[in-house]
Amino acid sequence: MISASKIPWRKAVRVEPDHGYRLHVLMEDDEEMELDITHLLTTRESFWRLKNFIYFQKVAVDPLCGLCWPGGEDIAPDRIPHYAVGADKDM
Prior knowledge:
The chain has 91 residues and is an alpha+beta fold. It contains two helices and six strands; from the N terminus they run βββααβββ.
């Protein structure tokens, strides 16, 4: 397993689910982001379980400091900013 201290990308350190399929994420540099993953849920069949809000709320930070759910759905650490509210989607 890779040590979190040796990961070469910005790391998520905390995530909290919110209504409207939004996530509040705290990054290692204390930047806070609000993510809207509605588009992800509507365009990726593999994320179908997240449409159940009870399951959606089981989000956690994974060992590589991305976001994950118990069934294997995940958002890679370098993709987290892509889902930030107001982010340029061509990142």
